[in-house]
């Protein structure tokens, strides 16, 4: 069970890095560069980027949801967490789902969201803000958990490697 928890944690952190990092690349690099192109070339470039990103994005979002639900159901014991932790978790989840929505709509092709995509630079800036909010909440939750003395170091032996992992203490 400890190995599954560790793998789920890695999946969750890696997915968060991708979902928070990608908007920065789009905001600071892709959209400013694309804005300098003629309309037809810009659309061609953005579609060439979005086509593989769409499928990858869907997979990353799905893994974020699975690993997040696993963490909530198996690792966390919300009834024993302080109210500030629960509030931060709620804000983090709302920000993350809003980020999933914005990134999905920007990468998608649904006609209903064409107007949304026309304002992509603005929405990608909002996605950057949502990503920052998610990271701030997640790191604050970790500090609240440690400050509340609910964290413990777990020793793991994987082959010849020995590592220590900070995990929430078992409640109970």
What is the structure about, briefly put?
The chain is mainly alpha-helical. 75% of the residues lie in helices and 9% in strands. It has a two-stranded antiparallel ribbon with strand order 1-2.
Describe this structure in words.
With about 170 residues, the chain is mainly alpha-helical. The protein has one domain (about 1-170). It is built from 5 helices and 2 strands. It has helices spanning about 1-35, 40-75, 85-105, 115-120, 120-145, and strands at about 150-160, 160-170. Strands 1-2 form a two-stranded antiparallel sheet. Strand 1 and strand 2 form a beta hairpin. The longest helix is centred in the N-terminal third of the chain and has 37 residues, at about 40-75. The chain is elongated and about 55 Å long. The chain starts with a helix and ends with a strand.
Question: What does the secondary structure layout of this molecule look like, with pairings?
Answer:
Elements: H1 2-35, H2 39-75, H3 83-107, H4 114-118, H5 120-147, E1 151-158, E2 161-168
Antiparallel strand pairs: 1-2
Helix pairs in contact: 1-2, 1-5, 2-3, 3-5
Keywords:
single chain, about 170 residues, mainly alpha, two-stranded antiparallel sheet, 5 helices, about 10% strand, elongated
Number of contiguous helices = 5
In total, the number of strands is 2
Strand content: 5-15%
Strand order of the largest sheet: 1-2
- The first-to-last residue Cα distance is 17 Å
Residue windows where pLDDT falls under 50 for at least 5 positions: none
Biggest beta-sheet profile: 2 strands, antiparallel
Give the overall pLDDT as a whole number: 88
User: Helical residue percent?
Assistant: over 70%
Rg, Å, rounded: 19 Å
General form: elongated
